[in-house]
Design goal:
Layout (H helix, E strand, L loop, with lengths): L7 H11 L2 H4 L10 H19 L1 H9 L2 E3 L2 E3 L4 H10 L18 H14 L1 H20 L2 H13 L2 E6 L15 E5 L2 E12 L8 E8 L12 E6 L1 E3 L5 E4 L2 E6 L10 E6 L5 E6 L5 H37 L20 H33 L3 H37 L10 H8 L9 H14 L4 H17 L2 H26 L1 H6 L1 H29 L7 H18 L2 H11 L1 H6 L6
Parallel strand pairs: 3-6
Antiparallel strand pairs: 1-2, 4-5, 5-11, 5-12, 6-7, 7-12, 8-9, 10-11
């Protein structure tokens, strides 16, 4: 397994040249995000990722998390690494200083999160879930709840989880059976939850579970779900830990990947009821949970980007070192590094170009989130919120699908050695596979994009982004921009089809949702790499000495590869979205 080195130059380029971090740093509340501080944060995070987290990735995969006599123990080195993470204040970057956060932009925190996930995906899931729980508490908690939980969770001393899934209710959350019975100022929670990431472990002092449950007289379905704060240890009035709550881990799941992440089956109320505190209002739990889920959906998309980056670094290193076969245009018999073979070059460039588009799209979404939270003008905040809402299903779905594809290419570049665990390439492939399932499967994300993000506002948010893309590519006047312009015509047509068809036949629109999402994301990725090339040309043409000339020239070449080799997939997805939906529904179920 090769070392992980955070691609800091790439991150800085996207942050400053594509998504406007300097402008975001000028928003109220983000004044501390100076260029020097941003650079320092990225450099220090890169060191922690490389020196502490990455060395535990393969060993953690081999050892896994263990469950013995009701106790969960994480893999060797994980508790110590978690303590270093907490001591460095890394979980507090984007949160309110009032509760111990550092008040830095989500855009910067997203780049840092990419590093944790690339270095050690299993480890990164713990702060990811805590981050989402913090967001839910900030948005829906009472003043007392915020004071009791946020400082500890933002610091990382307490971790957080999300408890949705039950054995009989997977993505159909409305079918859950966990019960919550009011008793004085709290509720007693009973029921079982499965697939609880980092549901029990030995790294944090306390674990704060966010649990969906139903009160006795609640309406059926999702309208009758409430959300509860259910801590492992009940906090005392002075903030110290009190008695153990009535909850326990009954086992850990045996998984395909992320072996070092303890995925727990949790039981609540075996001895009468776990004490839980209502977050938000009764029967409004899904609204509260979606605050947490939308945060997690973007974060899981970033994990898809991260695992792709790690697989790419591994494959690139192997391709430079592996000597096999003579060059195709050579008359000699000497073998060459496989990076010289055209098809290996094609695979590596597919990885590189797709990753650059993925990173730009993820950071663009994070920048929209910052503007939605901090822009002074209400209309600007509303527009930014519409943008992040539109981008969230694309970031979650497209980035995680691409993460699987790129991890698979990494195995392919290694050849037979890629199928052997000791190289590490297989672990990335196994780890990546959960990401299209997490936080709403990617089919659900496609439905969300079509039904809630395009049809609900009659295409307004999509039209705003499409207009920005068209304006940009017209101004660029480059071969890459021209290719994106052609793809935009197909995206426009598919969007019109979704709007027209969805109003008359939502089931037919749903059948075209997944190719439509791929189409939209692939074209958006093309737009962003074309912008990268335009920035690179501008900097190269400025006439100033450039120490990073090769870096900028590579941006142009990467954009050419993307628009020549990856963007053409958009045509197939446009056809599948508009003309393939009928055939999806035509066959009888018995014929499948």
């Amino acid at each position: 397994m090769s070392e992980y080195n955070a691609p800091i130059a790439e991150m800085k380029f996207v942050l400053r040249e594509l998504v406007g971090l300097d402008e975001i740093a000028g928003l109220p509340g983000y004044e501390e995000a100076t260029p020097d501080l941003v650079d320092a944060v990225l450099e220090e995070a890169g060191r922690l990722a490389k020196d502490v987290l990455a060395p535990l990735n393969q060993s953690g995969d081999r050892e896994g998390a263990a469950f013995e006599n009701g106790v969960v123990r994480t893999a060797s080195g994980f508790p110590e690494a978690y303590n270093l993470f907490v001591e460095g204040g890394w979980g507090s970057l984007p949160f309110d200083p009032e509760h111990g956060g550092q008040g830095l932009p989500w855009t910067l925190a997203t780049a840092v999160q990419e590093m944790w996930s690339a270095a050690n995906l299993s480890f990164s899931l713990a702060p990811l879930l805590t981050q989402g729980a913090v967001e839910a508490l900030q948005a829906h908690g009472t003043a007392e709840q915020k004071a009791a939980y946020l400082p500890h969770m933002i610091s990382g001393r307490w971790s957080g989880t999300m408890n949705l899934t039950e054995p009989q209710a997977g993505s159909d959350v409305g079918a859950l059976k966990a019960r919550a019975v009011k008793q004085g100022d709290h509720y007693l929670i009973t029921g079982q939850k499965i697939f609880i990431t980092w549901g029990e472990h030995d790294c944090a002092e306390n674990i704060v579970h966010m649990v969906l449950a139903r009160t006795p007289d609640a309406p059926a379905g999702t309208r009758g779900i409430s959300l509860f704060i259910v801590p492992k240890f009940l906090p005392k009035a002075d903030g110290t830990l009190g008695e153990r709550n009535d909850l326990r881990c009954v086992s850990l799941e045996h998984k395909l990947g992320i072996m070092a992440s303890p995925t727990a089956i949790m039981s609540y109320g075996d001895s009468g009821g776990a004490v839980g505190y209502l977050l938000g209002a009764e029967n409004k739990g899904m609204a509260c949970m979606f605050t947490m889920m939308n945060n997690a959906r973007v974060s899981v998309g970033v994990q898809g980007l991260a695992i792709a980056e790690r697989a790419y670094q591994q494959a690139r290193s192997f391709a430079r070192e592996r000597i096999q076969s003579r060059a195709i245009d050579s008359s000699g018999s000497a073998g060459v590094a496989i990076i010289q073979h055209p098809d290996v070059r094609r695979m590596l460039l597919t990885m590189k170009a797709t990753i650059e588009a993925m990173r730009a799209l993820a950071y663009l979404a994070a920048a929209a989130l910052d503007r939605a939270k901090h822009a002074p003008d209400a209309d600007d905040r509303a527009g930014a919120q519409a943008r992040i809402d539109l981008l969230t299903p694309m970031v979650k779905s497209w980035l995680t699908d691409c993460g699987c594809e790129i991890a698979s290419l990494g195995v392919q570049i290694h050849g037979g050695m890629g199928f052997i665990e000791e190289t590490g390439a297989a672990q990335y492939y196994r780890d990546a596979r959960i990401l299209p399932i997490y936080e709403g499967t990617n089919g659900i994300q496609a439905l969300d994009l079509v039904m809630r993000k395009v049809l609900r506002d009659e295409g307004a948010a999509a039209a705003a982004l499409l207009l920005e893309m068209r304006t940009d590519v017209t101004a660029m006047n480059s071969p890459e921009a021209e290719a994106v312009g052609v793809a935009l015509i197909e995206l426009d047509a598919a969007t019109d089809w979704i709007l027209e068809t969805g109003a008359k036949n939502p089931r037919l629109a749903a059948a075209g949702a997944t190719p439509y999402l791929r189409l939209f994301a692939t074209v958006a990725g093309g737009w962003l790499v074309a912008r990268s090339a335009a920035v690179a040309r501008r900097l190269l043409d400025a006439g100033e000495p450039l120490p990073d000339r090769s870096f900028l020239e590579a941006k142009i070449q990467t954009a050419r590869f993307y628009t020549g080799n990856i963007l053409p997939r958009a045509s197939a997805d446009a056809a599948a979205a508009m003309r393939g939906a009928h055939s999806t529904l035509a066959m009888d179920e018995a014929q499948l």
